Amino acid sequence: SIGSVSQLVNIQLENDIMGSLKFFSNHRTGGKDIIAQDITNKLYFISASGKVLWTKKLDGPILGSVEEVDILRNRKKQLAFTTKNTFYILDRTGRAVAPFPKTFRDDITQPLSVFDYDNNRNYRFIICQENELLMINNKGKTVRGFKFKKAKSDIILPPKHIRMATKDYILIAEKSGKLNILSRVGNSRVKVSKSFNFSDIPIVKEGENFVVISKDPESSGQIKNSISQSGEVRSLKLKVTAYWFAINGKTKVTLDDNLMRINGKLVELPYGIYTPPQIFSQHQ
């Protein structure tokens, strides 16, 4: 029930965990398996009951989250993620899916973004290297038709794809404060005149607007910026010291310090330091 906590499993790994646990859909059970990486860069794939199913040594820490894809189109998901120099796609047994992995000489500087414009598993994988952007298809080839190759300053958030009605938008945040809102082929679609002091919170869709949570330069607080599809910006100062914001479908979660709200319903957590909330859909 909401507001209660119970331990499901206790897992002891060989070394300390690096970063946070990640979850991966199990097509057999409809539930979630667990992905962890330790401080030696060893990746663990763990069942929901706590059994370590396999381990794999990686060449560095995973950047951001592990994305779920189905490039084989057989409804069996694969793990897609990047380290500083490698783009991996692994099946749920830990084997690499050809033609991956792909290695890069220059550092990858943002977590992997995955776009599936038409929900047909014709994926576009986005690799960021400082201010440069590379779009790769399921076959590991560069997508030549995407026109946005380079920003004027470093890209500081993973690029985001948002669909509103029949329109696709690609949002790219720059260190300079510029927000690029592009079409599917990389042309400018919405011009935003305001600059933002971007936080680490991902850009999301709320109703018919884009939402950017920025840092308030006048305080230690944050600002919620709602941006219309015509580029109009409405800003609201948030009077909290730690704020996180996540939306998945009709579910909206905010976390203000230890106060979590799920679709407006308050859940008061014990005082502590919390990771950003994540929303998962489970299908039985």
Which key phrases capture this entry?
284 residues, mainly beta, four-stranded antiparallel sheet, 23 strands, globular
3D structure, described in words:
The structure is a single chain. By secondary structure, the chain is mainly beta. The chain has strands at 22-25, 32-37, 42-46, 52-57, 67-69, 78-82, 86-90, 102-103, 113-115, 124-129, 132-136, 160-164, 167-173, 179-182, 188-190, 204-206, 209-215, 222-227, 233-238, 243-248, 251-256, 259-262, 265-268. A hairpin with a 5-residue loop joins β14 and β15 (188-190). The protein is globular and about 50 Å long. It starts with 21 loop residues before the first strand and ends in a 16-residue tail after the last strand.
Weakly predicted, low-confidence segments: none
Which percent bin holds the helix content? Answer: under 10%
Care to count the β-strands?
23
Arrangement of strands in the largest sheet: 1-2-3-4
Characterize the overall form: globular
Number of helices: 0
Q: Approximately how much beta-strand content do the residues carry?
A: 35-45%
**Category from helices, strands and their pairing:** mainly beta
How much is the average pLDDT? 89
Order of helices and strands: EEEEEEEEEEEEEEEEEEEEEEE
Distance between the termini: 18 Å
Query: Could you give a short account of the major beta sheet?
Result: 4 strands, antiparallel
How big is the Rg? 19 Å
